[in-house]
Amino acid sequence: MSFERSIGPSAEPAPTPGLVGTDVAGAGGVSAAMRLQILSTEHWSLLASRSLAWNESFSRAGMFLSTLSGAIVALALVAQASDFGEGFRLFGLVILPVVLLVGIGTVLRMGISNNHDALCVVGMNRIRAGYLELAPDLDRFFVMGTTDDERGVNLTMAMQARTSMLVHMLASTPLLVTVLNAILFGAIVALLVLQLGAGTTPALLLGTVGFVATLGAFMWYAGRDIARAMAEYHPKFPAPEPAEPADDA
């Protein structure tokens, strides 16, 4: 899931017990009204859990950006005082790794929140499938996915099929934080090379290598995590296969 929105999904009020009347008991002796109440309660619980995950992700991203902004301001002040000399390099080698550590923790936490968000979406899609089992004629009123396969999950997460996955990735906050982390690592490498006495050109080259390597490592880790999750997941309510056209006699 990408984090483009400014606020997380709001939680709906919890269903009040006893508002739904009794109905004919279905399988297992549980009435349709009781089934609806159970599904509604679980739906509300998933919405609340998803909202908390979104809020935490926004808080972590904001904390990282605030830390990065403060570090840049501090580096600017030290650069003016030391004329970009050894004091500036030493200060950068002290403060930038701290910011990078915060950034790495932010990306990892966002990945966990993404997995949690996808799990909540799967659960809510399954609940909608349960709603349709109770009232199949309400299918035309649902705008979110009612299947728990990849297509249904993407529909609920507003990931349109006609939009490239690359576009969704470029617009996501985790990728933004990842790029900033790679820039930080490249800057640390460049400052370290300068501090060891090398020239500007080697520092720029090695800093660029550090940036590319860090970005590639983060992308590889994220891709492996997504591939593993998709390989281990098996939908319970997939969309029916499209019927093949009948051959003309």
In brief, what are we looking at here?
By secondary structure, the chain is mostly helical. It has helices at 32-82, 86-134, 150-156, 165-170, 173-195, 200-232. It contains 6 helices and no strands.
Question: Which labels suit this protein?
Answer:
249 residues, single chain, disordered N terminus, mainly alpha
Give the overall average pLDDT: 85
Gross geometry: elongated
Distance between the termini: 48 Å
| Oligomeric state of shown chains | single chain
Low-confidence stretches: 1-7, 10-22
| Radius of gyration (Å) | 25 Å
Query: Could you spell the SSE succession in H and E letters?
Result: HHHHHH
Largest β-sheet summary: none
**Total count of strands:** 0
Summing up helix and strand content along with how strands pair, one would put the structural category as: mainly alpha
* Share of helical residues: 55-70%
Number of helices: 6
Number of domains: 1
What's the SSE blueprint?
Layout: H1 32-82, H2 86-134, H3 150-156, H4 165-170, H5 173-195, H6 200-232
Q: If you had to describe this structure to a student in words, what would you say it looks like?
A:
- The chain has 249 residues and is an all-alpha fold.
- The protein has one domain (27-231).
- It has helices at residues 32-82, 86-134, 150-156, 165-170, 173-195, 200-232.
